[in-house]
Amino acid sequence: MRMKIIAAVGLVGLLATGCADGGADSGDDTEAAPASTPLPQRLDQPDTDPELEPTASPAADAPFVDQLEYELRAKTLKMAAAQGATTAKCPDDVRSKSGEQITCTATYDDLKLDWYVTIGDSAAWSDNYVQYEASPSTGILTRDGVAKLLFGNYRRLPASTS
Fold this sequence. Notes:
Number of strands: 4
Radius of gyration: 31 Å
Order of helices and strands: HHEEEEH
Helix content: 25-40%
């Protein structure tokens, strides 16, 4: 008799649990959306020799600020290791005076970053060549840049997972 009571209590408990969820037979067949979108896992081999020079280089006799802006655009492209639209703007009153420190603003595909520039000495062999050090306020990490590092460092294609 005891076995029948335990079985009956268990059956009632199962039925109560099944009916209590309320959503099983409600007719709503939609599934809950995943909490996050999975990232693509495959990196294809990138172009190994892309053109990473900005367009429209300044003339040889262009003002120092134009030359500096062009160089910062080139540094921004090389940091991203991928082709993209770049701009650079430095203060108009920049002089090629040793020790001067300025902040220039560059963009890479609408991503803004500051370059902190310290002007160095002029080269002994040319009056037009001025040394400088530039460090960015932030780095740029692109999908193509990562792929170039992976494929460039390992010199062979990773095993395909598909």
